[in-house]
Amino acid sequence: MTSSPTVRRRRIARELRQLREQNGLTLDQAARQLDMSKSNLSRIENAQIGIKPRDVRAALALYQVNNADAEVLIEIARGAQQRGWWHNYSDVLPEWFEFYVGLEAEASVMRTYEAESVPGLMQTEAYARAMFLLTVGDVDIDRKVAARIQRQEILRHQETPVALSAVLNEAVLMRPVGGPDVMSEQLEQLADLAKLPNVTIQVLPMAAGGHPAMTTPYVILSFKDAPAESIVYLENLTNGQALEEPEHVGGYTMVHEKLCSMALGPDDSIALLREASRNIQ
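The line above is the sequence of Transcriptional regulator; the predicted structure tokens follow.
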């Protein structure tokens, strides 16, 4: 069973939407019988807001789901009301990014491409601090760095570490964020992480030329309880966007496969990371 309240909320939303459709009810019809507004039910089914266990029970009764199946979903709804560790950092994490961290915490597989900087999941404390100073300033920087470092626990989880495939543009290695010492340490950490059995890092060399992700970094998240319902996450300076439609997920998945084929292999990438660490200026 999933442990992230964010993922549990998505699971409940998906189940309630499917059950309503299977019963041939429109949003308006179901909302009236559940004594809620159509807009609220729509937001629940899109995982924009949560739903209380008692309201889940009422919805399941309407959709003629009972006994063990109903209790499983009600228990998931209870879990969706819990607070994830990231809620302790809600003063420094934007709401839209809290949503992403909740997904990340439950992901079983992550595939990502980064063009300019080391992904947050693999940053050292010094590199993370330098990035925050560059992008948002020094307000609450210690807590922001602490939250970023805590996210990285999913890479080393004893029982179920996330499987991470990361393609890094060679420019990431060449841009000395924080100065030579900070960058050298960061590159060494990347090389060390790449030796974990659940982590694959590939460097996309400049010599590879143009590629299909030149306009956008991305993260593709997949989940053990719903492998067919992956999410593509895109981010800019002030907001994040989650794409769930199969055509979007399929398109980004094909792009990632293409980048992996164009990039250096894992062993050659580790060697390049070590070399870049030694030669950083």
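Note on the example: The radius of gyration is 21 Å. The chain has a mean pLDDT of 91.
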